[in-house]
Specification:
The chain is of the alpha/beta class and about 325 residues long. It has two domains: about 1-190, P-loop containing nucleotide triphosphate hydrolases (Rossmann fold, 3-Layer(aba) Sandwich), CATH 3.40.50.300; about 200-315, no CATH class. The protein has nine helices and nine strands. The strands form two sheets. Strands 2-3-1-4-5 form a five-stranded parallel β-sheet, sandwiched between helices. The protein has a four-stranded parallel β-sheet with strand order 7-8-6-9, with helices on one face. It is globular, with a radius of gyration of 21 Å.
């Protein structure tokens, strides 16, 4: 799955005050290997027009990132070097998009050059074609690919143009079902600094409904549709997996306990290896039919179990009624 690239190319996040500790010897043109833990962090935001890059950049700015919109590709290596040398900026975020035109073909090569200077992650925002068309209709803004084609044609052309960048992204973020506030919350949970965390890994335990599609940003997918469905119990139909009665019902089956035990054992085996490989974020998705009962309970229960084991975990319920 494409999401499994998450974190492999990313270095450690800069810690507060790290910028002030940079050794002058690492600032020259001929400096050797970069100490990523002490040399800052760069996040490159890119992706489809209408997927929320502007809102995402504002969220990074509020997290303390020095933020730049639409920096020309040729200036990115110089910008990364300035961040590495700065005693005041230790985290930065910038946006590049289809406005760069054919120069986007050079991005993978430029990214390799930048990563030799600074710990860098690429976040690619995307959304379904229907969602993008609706957003352009609501804002009444023209698509940056031009006015001569229809919005759908422009979206398809842009998706093709951005495919080489998508292939080198560390994080693929589908914003189809996000509003502005949910996008901000997601970025905050992924990128805000956590003081005193025992393990350098943020885990998202997500529930979803298969009838609405598999989440594209999930690294691990677990299908819990083998469990009896509370939807067919009339008193549970309007409730969710967070309700104590539904939780008790789902938990009453032998296979539920066996699944939780075996999945916990699997994750406790995998997570230390992910951390060793430099993975900073992991999204595990638990899916049932509608994303309201079984998957919600399992996602919450796995959060509890992994927190007990000392991991930092948050839950997200994509399709649970609000």
């Amino acid at each position: 799955m494409a999401g499994e690239r998450l974190g492999k190319a990313a270095g450690k996040q800069a810690k507060p005050g790290a910028a002030a500790k940079k050794a002058p010897a690492k600032r020259g043109k001929n400096a050797g290997a970069v100490d990523h833990a002490a040399s800052g962090e760069l996040v490159i935001l890119t992706g489809m027009s209408g997927a929320g890059k502007a809102s995402a950049l504002k969220a990074f700015e509020d997290l303390g990132y020095y933020s730049v919109d639409n920096l020309p590709l040729e200036l990115i290596p110089r910008f990364a070097d300035l961040v590495r040398q700065s005693t005041e900026i230790d985290r930065a975020a910038l946006v590049i998009d289809v406005r760069e035109g054919i120069r986007l073909d050079r991005f993978p090569a430029i990214l390799k050059k930048v990563r030799r200077v600074l710990s860098t992650r690429v976040v690619f925002l995307e959304a379904s074609e229907e969602a993008l068309v609706r957003r352009f209709s609501e804002t009444r803004r023209p698509h940056p690919m031009g006015r001569e084609e229809t919005v759908i044609e422009s979206i398809r052309a842009e998706r093709e143009r951005l495919d080489p960048i998508r292939n080198v992204a560390d994080i693929l973020l589908d914003t189809t079902k996000f509003n502005v506030h949910e996008l901000r919350a997601h970025i905050n949970s992924q990128f805000e600094e956590h003081e005193g965390a025992e393990r350098n890994l943020t885990i998202s335990s997500m529930s979803f409904g298969f009838k609405n599609g598999v989440p594209t940003d999930a690294d691990l997918i677990f299908d819990v549709r083998f469990l009896p469905n509370p939807h067919f119990v009339p008193e549970f139909r309007e409730l969710t997996g967070k309700h104590p009665k539904v939780a008790q019902y789902v938990q009453s089956f032998t296979q539920t306990g066996e699944f939780l035990e075996k999945t916990t054992d699997l994750l406790e085996f995998l997570l230390p290896h992910y951390i060793k490989e430099g993975k900073s974020y992991l999204t595990m998705g638990f899916g049932c039919t509608g994303g309201q009962h079984r998957s919600v309970f399992i996602a919450e229960e796995m959060k509890r179990r992994l927190e007990t084991a000392g991991y930092r975990v948050k839950t997200a319920h994509r399709d649970m009624p609000r």
